[in-house]
Amino acid sequence: EADIYQTPRYLVIGTGKKITLECSQTMGHDKMYWYQQDPGMELHLIHYSYGVNSTEKGDLSSESTVSRIRTEHFPLTLESARPSHTSQYLCASSEFGLDQPQHFGDGTRLSIL
Amino acid sequence: GENVEQHPSTLSVQEGDSAVIKCTYSDSASNYFPWYKQELGKGPQLIIDIRSNVGEKKDQRIAVTLNKTAKHFSLHITETQPEDSAVYFCGSKTSYDKVIFGPGTSLSVIP
C-alpha cells in the first residue's frame, strides 16, 4: 500500500484567495509529480521534481507553483485562485529507475467560486 | 510530441465476460508500460505493468500483452466482476523518463 497523502480532500473557496495544496509521502521517493485531472478523466502533468530543490514544469501550462524543500513534501500553490482553476489535483511519487511505477494520492478536488 | 491513444473510451460488459482495452504509443524508445485503475473518489492505483523485453504478463484475472513492433499494448480482464467497474489508464514511459497516460477507459460491469 502506497503512503502518499493529500490534504485537503475537498476545498471550496472564493476567487482571489491564495491556496496551498499539500502532498506528503513517507516512502522516501525522490521523484514527485502533480497532475491536473479534468472532468473528461485525462491526466495532465503540470509539475514534477527529481528531488530536493528540483522543480520542473510539466506538459500542461499551469499558473500554479511548487516547491521541494524536503524530500517527503511537495506542496502546490495558487497565488490568486480563479474559477478556471477548478479541477481535481493528483499528487504522485516514484523511485528513480527506468521502470519504477508512480504511486498516487487520492487527490484534492478544488472548486473556485 | 509523444502521445498515447486508448480505446474504447467507454466499455460495458456483462458480469463474467472479458474486457479488453487497447493502447497505442508513438515513442519507439518507450520501455515501460503501466496500467492503473481509478475508482470513484480515489487516485489511480497500479494494477499491472510490463517491461519492453516481455511480451505478456499475467496476474490472476488480469493480463497485459505488448507488441513492440506495432507499438501497441492491451489490458485483458477475464471473468469480470462488478468491483472491476472503474476508469482504467494505460501509460507509456518515454525516453525522457516521464509517463504519458492515455485518456482513460470507463469500464462498467453489469451484474
Description:
The complex is a heterodimer of chains A (113) and B (111). Chain A is 0% helix and 45% strand. Chain A has strands at 4-7, 10-13, 19-25, 31-37, 43-49, 56-57, 65-66, 76-78, 87-94, 103-104, 108-112. In chain A, a hairpin with an 8-residue loop joins strand 9 (87-94) and strand 10. Chain A is globular and about 40 Å long. Chain B is mainly β and 111 residues long. Chain B has no helices and eleven strands. Chain B has strands at residues 4-7, 10-14, 19-25, 32-38, 45-51, 56-59, 62-67, 72-77, 86-93, 99-101, 105-110. Chain B is globular, with a radius of gyration of 13 Å. Chains A and B meet through strand 5 and strand 10 of A and strand 4, strand 5 and strand 9 of B.
Q: What is the number of helical segments of chain B per DSSP (H or I, 4+ residues)?
A: 0
Beta-strand portion of chain B reads over 45%
Radius of gyration of chain A: 13 Å
Q: Approximately how much beta-strand content do the residues of chain A carry?
A: over 45%
Instruction: State the helix count of chain A.
Output: 0
The structure class of chain B reads: mainly beta
Helix percentage range of chain A:
under 10%
How many β-strand stretches of chain A?
11
Uncertain segments of chain B are: none
Global shape of chain B: globular
